[in-house]
Every structure is written in C-alpha cells, then in structure tokens.
Amino acid sequence: MGCRLLKLKHKDCPMEQLEDFWNDIVPMSFKEIAKLPNLEQRRVGVLCLGLEKLASEVQPKLLSKKTLKKSTTWVDENGNLITTKFNDTYELYEVSGDYFNEGLQGWGKMENAYFVKLKDTSTDRMYFIWVEPRSVYNTNNENRWDFKLDKINAIQCIAWTIQTNVPQNGIEKIIRQGDCILIKPNGKYKPLDSARHLTEKEYKTLLVAES
Length: 211
Known about the structure:
alpha+beta; 4-stranded antiparallel beta sheet; 3-stranded mixed beta sheet; 7 helices
C-alpha cells in the first residue's frame, strides 16, 4: 500500500530501495483510497493523490463559472506601490457521492459533494475548497425554504469560505493575503456571538486588496 501511494505522489523513484521494482508498482486510484480501512489512511491517500488528480478521477460536473475583474496594489522590491489589474475566475463543481461510497452500506453513505476551484492571486497554483451549498444559499437569501442548486454561484461559494464575527454593514474593507483574511470594521458595530459567512455582495464590494 505504501509503495502504491508513493507512486501516486512521485513521478521518479524517491528512494534507492525501490528502484528495482519502481516501474512495476501500480499507483492507487481514488476509488481504492476511498475503501481504505480508516480515516487516517484515506487522508494520507488523498494527500498523495493530489487535488488535480482527484478532480480528474471523480469527473466533477461544472455548475457555475464566474469571473471578477479586480485590481490590487502590491509593493515591489524597491518599495514602490504598483497597481495590478487581473481577472479572477471561480468555478463551482459537483461530485457524485458514488465516488465516496465504495464499499459503504446503509447510513454511512455520503451525498453529493461540492467544491469551488480558484487560482492563487500571485502564482499559478490552483486550489479546491469544499463548500456546503445549502449554507451558501442561506447566507445570501432571506427565503431559506426555496433552496435549489441553480440559485447559487461560484462567487457566493468563495465568499462563504470566509467567516467573521463582524455583522453585515459593519465592515469597512477586507484585505486578503493567501489564507490570512484581514477585516477592518467601520467602528459602528457590536461583535456577533458566533461567526457568520460573508455574502457575495460583501466579497465583490469590500475586498480592496489581495496577494
């Protein structure tokens, strides 16, 4: 099992002890990883597989694709401020629960899963973030009883991945540096007792800089 997972992670043989039979090792598939005996083994398996390979194996269905035209300010190596304009594209995908349910019976089965795909602002690295569609819908709509998948979009999903205890109408601006989210309150708010998700409107209007 360990050799098959290593073959997933490495194109070339990572250690001389495996060189004699490296070419004969068959990489493990996602369906095989999903059937491993415990959660920790499955976690390691997914890490070795990588998100790009995982996505290609589970054949996700594209539900929404949205592009925002953005501008942000960076500081170059000489300390000069540089304003950069770029297109930021987000994609929402659905994955059939069948890919996660190999070998499972009854109540242990999962429903379909959903993830949003996005590009890192300053590199070519792609990210996949799992989201919960009904919660995304509830965050952006007052009528919570009329949920349908086609009523949410990729921008709402990426906004949903950010949480804050600052109430709506209490945010002056948002700055993002990788996974670090800085939210500046406008000074006229009472912190919420629990965190909430950002709305699509907040993400599109209050995010002023990112790197």
